[in-house]
Amino acid sequence: MKLLSQLRTSSFQLALLYMVVFATSVFLLLAFIYWRTAGFMTAQTDETIEAEIAGLAEQYRGRGVNGLITIIRERVARDPNAKTVYLLSTDDLLKLAGNIEAWPEGSRTAESGWINFTLDSSVGWQGPERLARARIFDVQGGLRLLVGRDVDELTSLKRVIEGAINWGMGITLALALLGGFLMSRSTTRRIEVINNTSRRIMNGHLSLRIPTRGTDDDFDQLAENLNQMLDRIVYLMEGIRHVSDSIAHDLRTPLTRLRNQLERTLISVDNDEAREQVGRAVGEADQLLATFNALLRIARLETRGNTADMKVISLDELVGDACELYEALAEDKDQQFKQVMEPKVMIEGDRDLLFQMVSNLIDNAIKYTPEHGGIVVVVRKEGTSAVFEVQDSGIGIPDDEKDQVFQRFYRVGKSRSLPGNGLGLSLVSAVAEIHQGEILLSDSHPEAEMPGLTVAVKMPAFTGVRKRIRATQVEQVTDGADEARSSADSQA
Predict the structure, then answer these.
(1) What is one term from the GO cellular component aspect held by the record (predicted)?
(2) How far apart are CA 212 and CA 191, in angstroms?
């Protein structure tokens, strides 16, 4: 699988394209060398045959047919290895001189006069089979003359060159493929480091930065630019968060005083209408205080990481306690409230924070599910993960909004008429992040008019060896975030 992913990378495809261009260039170069070399050797052979023919023609003009026969026999006698092939015969194929006994097949139909044939028993050759090239022409007086050369060594040399070209191309392609793989692997590793770091940053680890090698190459420059951009983003986010947290903190005290004054007023008012109006004002103040408290709690979780009370707890027991608290609320709306608990699902975490997360999700399910609806609370173990899941048959969340509901104050369009401040899922996300949890949203009944919502929180199950590890990790991340904010402040 890793090899297949490597082959699909753009760097490998670019290396493959370069390999094709390089191999094509090498092939064209070798083909040109072969064409020039083989053509030169063939031309040399033809020139030797032409020179032999010119000498025999000179002898024929000076000494006649008998002289031609004599000179052919002398040359055959002087050439025991038969590098030159001769055959002189009458028009009815009667041999007069030469070192072969018969005419090669197809020699009478050769239009250009040049033929390639095999020296074997079919032409009366006594030695081992060899390749030959010859020219045939007619001599005055009804005679036919064949003059050729043994080209077996030339043909073997051509085969050697062809084999060398084939091996050269194969080695070139193999080396180019290996080089392209190694180059793309090196490039992919650098890119994968950037991708992995980016994914972790997107998951909330804003203190992380892309490592550099100190070579000041293109990847180092890209990493430095991305790190500077991240520093700036963190600085701006911290500025906005600081302003909102400061507003919430500064307004909470006077709002608490106002709420207390309204409560004292409510006790002293005798008029029923005035009492009702003051009661509504107290309720609104309580809602505002709840919003500010949620903002401050989320800020503390995101910036410092509340891990002081990390202990091994039973998730099914914790969720059971929360269900017992909210079951009466579901009964008031005539909702079916079902629990599916797998026993002894152990995790390591902060019980108070987890209870708040579980309570928020169950409360949301009850709030957004209409009367006579159904709610299912599930606790189970999947491999090395502990899963807490809430399924409801309520209004659900559109697919294009599922990624946005964890933002502060974000509310789905269908739920804006219901009470709430849009901070519940933000708090759930912060608690899940501290416990290395992953939140998954899906429709409970995709085909129904009311699709409902299934919220699943997957957290690492306790195995007996992870205790206190997360606390250390969060402290390191928090320290890194503080350093990043200090760096951003200094740059600003």
Answers:
(1) plasma membrane
(2) 12
Domain locations in the chain as residue ranges: 10-156, 203-303, 310-461
pLDDT at 492 over 50: no
Instruction: Give, for 355, the enclosing helix (H) or strand (E).
Output: helix 351-368
With a pLDDT cut of 90, the percent of the chain lying above it is 11
C-alpha 288/C-alpha 286 separation (Å) is: 5
Question: Which amino acid is residue 412, in one-letter code?
Answer: V
Spatial separation of the C-alpha atoms in residues 441 and 405, rounded to whole Å: 10
Give mean pLDDT, residues 297-316: 68
Residue tagged 């260039």 (tokens) = 25
Distances (CA, A) of 265 to 110, 251, 262, 277, 289: 127, 21, 5, 11, 18
CATH 3.30.530 fits 10-156, yes or no: no
**CATH node for 310-461:** 3.30.565.10
Most confident of 26-35, 54-63, 198-207, 359-368: 359-368
Q: What is the pLDDT of residue 102?
A: 85
Under 8 Å CB-to-CB from 100, ≥6 apart: which residues?
Answer: 85, 86, 87, 119, 123, 124, 125, 146
Q: Which CATH class is domain 203-303?
A: mainly alpha
Instruction: For residue 459, count CB atoms less than 10 angstroms from its CB and return exposed for 0-12, middle for 13-18, buried for 19 or more.
Output: buried
Domains 10-156 and 310-461 share a fold: no
Is residue 457 helix, strand or coil?
Answer: strand
CB 119 within 8 A of CB 148: no
Give CA–CA dist 138/143, Å, rounded: 6
Residues 6+ apart with CB under 8 A from 488: 231, 232, 234, 235, 238
User: 444-449 contacts: CB < 8 A, separation 24 or more?
Assistant: 444/391, 444/392, 444/393, 444/396, 445/393, 448/393
- Distance CA(350)–CA(90), nearest Å, equals 115
pTM (two decimals): 0.46
Specify the 3-state DSSP secondary structure of 205.
coil
Residue 253: CB atoms within 10 Å: 10
